[in-house]
Amino acid sequence: AGDRVDRTSLPLYQTFRYRRGTSLEIVWFKRDLRAHDHAPLAAAAASGPVIPLYILEPDLWQQPDMARRHYDFLAECLGELDRDLTALGQSLVLRVGDAVAILSALCASYGVTTIRMHQETWNGWTYDRDRRVRAWARLAGIRIVEEMQSGVHRRMASRRGWAGKWDAMMAEPVVPTPASLVSISIDSEAWPDPHQLGLAKDHCPQRQPGGRQVGLDHLASFLSHRGESYRFSMSSPVTARRCCSRLSPYLAFGVLSMRE
Question: Could you report how far apart the first and last alpha carbons of the chain are, in Å?
Answer without folding.
Answer: 27
